[in-house]
UniProtKB/TrEMBL annotation:
<keyword id="KW-0805">Transcription regulation</keyword>
<dbReference type="InterPro" id="IPR041674">
    <property type="entry name" value="TetR_C_22"/>
</dbReference>
<keyword id="KW-0238">DNA-binding</keyword>
<dbReference type="InterPro" id="IPR050109">
    <property type="entry name" value="HTH-type_TetR-like_transc_reg"/>
</dbReference>
<dbReference type="InterPro" id="IPR009057">
    <property type="entry name" value="Homeodomain-like_sf"/>
</dbReference>
<dbReference type="Pfam" id="PF17928">
    <property type="entry name" value="TetR_C_22"/>
</dbReference>
<dbReference type="InterPro" id="IPR001647">
    <property type="entry name" value="HTH_TetR"/>
</dbReference>
<protein>
    <submittedName>
        <fullName>TetR family transcriptional regulator</fullName>
    </submittedName>
</protein>
<keyword id="KW-0804">Transcription</keyword>
<feature type="DNA-binding region" description="H-T-H motif">
    <location>
        <begin position="41"/>
        <end position="60"/>
    </location>
</feature>
<feature type="domain" description="HTH tetR-type">
    <location>
        <begin position="18"/>
        <end position="78"/>
    </location>
</feature>
<dbReference type="Pfam" id="PF00440">
    <property type="entry name" value="TetR_N"/>
</dbReference>
Length: 211
């Protein structure tokens, strides 16, 4: 009998392992929020999580693995936000432009609202695994944006569309990070300026392919 369509039920052991891993990540988040990522230690994570330091290694091999898991969690959270923005079908280039800017806004708000995610990604420049995670995330976003935009341009525009969206993606991330380094009032003005600049570049690109 084919069982492939039946729901997967976790065993009690699997459920306990997932709960324990979640406990560890929650403890790490709490410590980062209070003391910063640089002051994270295995012993304190274990104490806050209510487990022994030795048992930590059944789930995460070291502190860097815990930080990486938190980074992956935030990547998944942003993917959910991205999916929500593009819930409805896109009907024209103007709507697409507005949705792209909403993505930038969501990126900014996710980081602005949660000091933990800012602290985690601040260390990405010195951690190879975090760099790889960020690079893979950017590649996924670029592929998604290109797929969303492709129906509104001729096939011959594909290379330039990819190039332009890649630049806009990286300019947007850079603008968001600059805004996050500022206080909330100045950061909002910086982000709005970035949105305006990116929007103008997109409009100019679209004009190159006006029927």
């Amino acid at each position: 009998m084919d069982q492939t369509n039946e729901p997967v039920v976790r065993s009690p052991q699997q459920q306990r392992s997932k709960q324990r891993a979640d406990q560890i990540l929650a403890a790490a988040r709490a410590i980062i929020l209070e003391k910063g990522c640089a002051n994270l230690t295995i012993s304190e994570i274990a104490e806050v999580a209510g487990i022994t330091p030795g048992s930590m290694y059944q789930y995460y091999r070291n502190k860097a693995a815990i930080v990486l898991a938190l980074g992956q969690y935030y990547v998944e959270q942003f993917q959910l936000r991205l999916a929500q923005i593009f819930t409805e079908p896109v009907s024209n280039r103007e709507q697409l432009s507005m949705l792209f800017l909403q993505v930038l806004e969501q990126h900014y708000q996710l980081f602005r609202d949660d000091p933990v995610v800012r602290d985690i990604w601040a260390g990405a420049a010195t951690d190879k695994d975090m760099q790889n995670l960020e690079q893979q995330d950017n590649v996924r976003h670029l592929q998604f944006f290109c797929s969303a935009a492709a129906p509104f341009f001729p096939p011959s525009a594909a290379p330039e569309l990819h190039r332009t969206l890649n630049l806009l993606l990286h300019f947007g991330i850079a603008g968001s990070r600059l805004a996050l380094d500022q206080d909330e009032v100045e950061g909002r003005q910086t982000l709005n300026a970035a949105k305006k600049m990116l929007g103008e570049v997109w409009i100019q690109f679209c004009r190159n392919y006006t029927d």
